[in-house]
Structure formats: C-alpha cells, structure tokens
Amino acid sequence: MSRLSSIFSSLKEQNKKALITYIVSGDPDNKSTIDSMRYMSSHGVDIIEIGVPFSDPMAEGPSIQRGHERSLENHTSLKGILNLVGEFREENQEIGIVLMGYMNTFESMGAFDFSSQASKQGVDGIIVVDMPPEESSKFTEETQKHDLDIIRLVAPTTDKERVKKICESASGFIYYISLKGTTGSENINPQDVKKNISHLNNVSNLPVVVGFGVKNKETVLSIKDLSDGVVVGSTLVDILGKYGFGKEFQEKIDELSSALVD
Fold first, then answer.
1. Over the stretch 169-199, which tens digit does the pLDDT of each residue have?
2. Which of 51, 133, 142, 260 is deepest in the core (most CB within 10 A)?
3. 3-state helix, strand, coil in the chain (%, to 5)
C-alpha cells in the first residue's frame, strides 16, 4: 500500500478528512519552504503539495503565478526540489508529499531519471496539470515502476465518458476542481460539488479531494463533508509571498486544521 493510500485509509478509520496544502518550492526561499513543511507536518496537515515553478503556469490564478515567478527568480530547479524533499524525509516519513507542476519541467529531466530520483527522495505522487492520459503512457509507465502515484484532475466541465477515462488512469486520489477557472477563484457551490463528487464516487474507488477556491475556515466547513479531503493553496502562497514563514502562516494552518475537527 502506498503512503497516500495508507493516509486516506487511516483517516477513513478515524472518520476524518484530509487536509492537503499547496506551497511553491523556493517561494520566497528554500528555508521558508522547509520550515513551512515542518510546521504543517506537525499541525494537522496530511499531505503537502509542492508546486514546481514554471514560466507559464496556465491553470494558476494570480496568487500562485506570482509564487512561481518568485521561485524562478531564486533559480529553483526540479533537482533542487527533489533534494529538499530528501532532506525533509530524513526527519519525517509519515506525511504525504506530492509534486504539482507542468509536463515540460518533468520531461526535461526524463521519465526514468525523474521517477527514480523522486521515489528515492521520498516523493509519493505527482500532479501534472497539462498531461492527459492518452499522451502520457511512457511517463505513467515509469512512475508506476517506481511506485509514484499519478493524481488526476477532474473539472466540473469534464464530460462523463472523459471522467471515467481519467479515473481509470489515476492512482493515489482524484483532485476535483471545484470551480470553472483558475486556482484561487471565488464562489464554490456546494450543491454542484456534491453532485459531481457523487458521480466520481460511482466510477472510482479512489478518494476524492476538493481544491481551487478553498481559502479559509468557512470554505472548509461548507464542503468538508462532501469529499475525502480539501486542498488549500492560493491563500498560503499569498501569505508566504508577503510575510515569509512566520506567525501569519502558522495561524492560517491552525485555522484550517481546526475547521476539519469542528
């Protein structure tokens, strides 16, 4: 059983939901990244998504785009991120770690080299925003050989036949995009989320988490019972960009974590 599967299985036994957080590696610097990871891992976060910076992050809203820009200014590289994960794994083997980025970055390293190094350093899975199932057979083959989960994204506009195909090629969990738009958009409709997640549960046994537009305790409370977990990203990237790692970030993590036990 993969680490991600074990996390969701354990949470289900405890009747709990997963808190998944997203930060961009190297934003605003590497120290802030690893300090944030350490704090999150000991304050209620179950899985950390680490953004791999890219020059054209098309699915991201303004907040995360700025995070990517700040990270690239620091010359953050994929190899550097893998080394950072390896450093973190020396002290923590429990929390899930997923890399989220764009295909060009991963392909530039090569499917075999990336998969073997990511597995060695303790990465559990990847989310590749612009990698459709039918164009990723080689990459998927290598990740599977190295026990890396490929988490797939499903949007509210995805037709049902397409949803089925996406779910069949996924592992770890399904990431349901709650809004039509980019990350950090507004106005989640819980009824729409409930209906679409119900369909996902009918076609897949994988856990389903909700992201895009989840920003605060109120949002978490409105949707936490509809899925197996929630993903929070833009608001954390904004805080790190403005303040770096400190009390503001810590307070936001504590707020989100408390929402899942209310």
1. 899 999 999 866 544 445 667 788 888 889 8
2. 51
3. 50, 15, 35
Q: Provide CB contacts within 8 A for 161, sequence distance 6+.
A: none
Q: Which two tokens stand for residue 10?
A: 């354990």
We report the CATH number of the domain holding residue 209 as 3.20.20.70
Dist. CA 175–CA 142, nearest whole Å: 21
CA-based R_g, the chain, Å: 17
| Residue 196 host element (H or E) | helix 190-203
Show the tokens assigned to 102: 């764009």
Partnered with residue 175 across adjacent β-strands are: 153, 209
Assign 118 to helix, strand or coil. Answer: helix
pLDDT score of 224: 85
Q: What is the amino acid identity at position 136?
A: S
pLDDT at 262: 65
Collect the ranges in the chain with pLDDT lower than 50.
Answer: 182-185
Parent domain of 62: 3-259
Q: Record the tokens describing residue 192, joined without a space.
A: 């729409």
Is the pTM here over 0.90, yes or no? yes
**Residue 90 identity (one-letter amino acid):** E
For 100, the token pair is: 């989220």
